[in-house]
Amino acid sequence: MSHPLLEALFAYDRWATRTILAACAELTQEEFERPLNIGPRSLERTLSHLVSALFFFVDRLDRRAPRPRLEKDGRTRTAAELLELFAQADREFSAAVTRTIETHALTDLLNWTSTDEGPIDPADQITYAVALAQMIDHGIQHRAQAADMLELLGKSLPHELSPFEWDEAQRR
After folding, report:
1. What per-residue confidence (pLDDT) applies to 1?
2. Residue 93: helix, strand or coil by DSSP?
3. Cα separation of 158 and 109, whole Å?
4. Per the domain annotation, does 171 fall within a domain?
5. Alpha-carbon dihedral of residues 124, 44, 72, 57, nearest 10 degrees?
6. How far is CA 32 from CA 43, 101, 167, in A?
7. Angle 79-103/4-24 helices, nearest 10 degrees?
8. Domain count, the chain
């Protein structure tokens, strides 16, 4: 990808998600699955949703039907399993964003639906720029929920999840 702003945003997003998942790997499975009444209710459900959404974003950027959602398959996962799935999703996502930037203007329209078939309601079409912004915002929202859940469990992150912290970590 040769778009420095997007490269920085998605590198930060990747780092922040890995930080949350690594912190969750220190929890017991009971703590990881404990209902906490924030967002999707537990760290396991929240992070399953976050990783699953990344696969959805890949599929939409590649304009193919979305795969089944992780958070809806009836399985619970460990933080380590989600970290592995995140690594896979992130590799696919990075490649999809690169392909998107190379083949579409950020002002081109993307169908924010589960298919490109049949008539698409114009209300379900957004620009690639808005889609990429949504992808960043989605991660921030659910990481904030996860950070709050960790606090409720009496755990803390090793550092803040700000772009400043990310930048400093890159310089070390």
Report:
1. 61
2. helix
3. 39
4. no
5. 30
6. 5, 36, 29
7. 170
8. 1
The domain that holds 69 is classified in CATH as 1.20.120.450
Average pLDDT score, the chain: 94
Residue 161 has phi, psi (to 5 degrees) of: -105, 40
How many whole angstroms separate alpha carbon 94 and alpha carbon 130? 17
Q: Has this prediction a pTM greater than 0.90? A: yes
Q: Could you tell me the pLDDT band of residue 118, with boundaries at 50, 70 and 90?
A: confident
> Is the pLDDT reported for residue 2 higher than 80?
no
For 165, counting Cβ atoms within 10 Å of its Cβ (0-12 exposed, 13-18 middle, 19+ buried), the class is middle
Q: Is residue 95 part of a domain?
A: yes
Q: What is the pLDDT of residue 113?
A: 87
Of 80, 84, 90, 82, the residue nearest 57 (C-alpha): 90
- Rounded CA-CA distance 51/71 in Å is 9
